[in-house]
Amino acid sequence: MSLEVPAALLERAEAGHVDDAEFVDCVRQSLPYAWKVISEAVEAGEHATPPPSEKERGELLRALASDAIRGALERHFGRKLAFQNCHRVAAFPFAEVDSDNYREFISPVAQIRNQSPELRDC
Fold it and tell me: Which of 11, 16, 23, 61 has minimal CB crowding within 10 Å?
């Protein structure tokens, strides 16, 4: 799942000049399902609905597996994104990264509890 990068943005990147707003807009337009999921997690604290297809699953994995994309989204939304599997995403205010809730969400115990046979391929 690649980003759809406009020619003008690619030219600026090749010159070494891309700001977060341009990059975030490229992500928003290229990965609309991932944008929707992360926006919902920011609003509600967590998103836990499985993606409707492999395409959407790929978008979410692409957004959260890339350090550059994830970091830009975290800066844009002002939240630390936490990811357990192909659909379970939480968004914590940066001030809560050292909280019990955050530590529980990212714990191995929570990861194991969130597994199921139908999600083993995600």
Answer: 16
